[in-house]
Amino acid sequence: MCFGRCTRCIGCKLLILALLSIVANILLYFPNGETRFASEHHLSKYVECLHGILGGGLLVLIPAAVFIGLHNDDCCGCFGHENCGKSCAMISSVLAAFVGILGSGYCIIISALGLSHGPYCYTHVERNWIYPFTESSGGYLFEYNKWSKCQEPQNIVQWNVTLFSILLVLGGIEFILCFIQIINGILGGVCRLCCSHEETFAC
């Protein structure tokens, strides 16, 4: 059966995606490479939710590690049948996939909210740090002429839109891969159990 091979492939992809999510979230903390905005707490509240580091990152690294190491885990077999142990490992991978679903789902939700509410920035009109695009419900994304409202940090709208969009896409791919593994794990576990029972009756 190719269920185990598919699981390891999914694990490798999740590992790469999780690392990219962590990097993208870290970059959100440093607009234009500057650290002062983070130290002065002049960042969007959605940046501080750690959705890329915790959600799309660490919580996805857990199933990634489980999937990659699945070929070494046969649960010691049962009643002398290796297939039974392998089915146990495949079904346990489903639980790990649910952890990935939660993490990637959190990343998707926060990224979507971050895009919808827009950045936290300083505007000359109000002469204060505000969320100037909150009431637009994401409409500002297509109104490029209004992006100049944000004076500090420079190019913060482009910075946030790019990174939140990347995190949204990464979270979406992670969610899909974890969902695929849930199906793959269930099918792999059931098929191996069936094969094990057939071998038992054949003996």
UniProtKB/TrEMBL annotation:
Pfam families: L6_membrane (PF05805)
Location of this chain's protein in the cell: Membrane
Record has Transmembrane helix as a keyword: yes
GO cellular component: plasma membrane
UniProt entry tagged with the keyword NAD: no
Keywords assigned: Membrane, Transmembrane, Transmembrane helix
Membrane-spanning segments: 12-30, 50-70, 91-115, 161-183
InterPro entries: L6_membrane (IPR008661)
Top-rank lineage group of the source organism: Eukaryota
Topology versus the membrane: Multi-pass membrane protein
Family the UniProt entry places it in: Belongs to the L6 tetraspanin family.
Database matches in PANTHER family: TRANSMEMBRANE 4 L6 FAMILY MEMBER 1 (PTHR14198:SF18), TRANSMEMBRANE 4 L6 FAMILY MEMBER 1-RELATED (PTHR14198)
Protein name stated in the entry: Transmembrane 4 L six family member 1
Organism: Anas platyrhynchos platyrhynchos (Northern mallard)
Gene name tied to this protein: TM4SF1
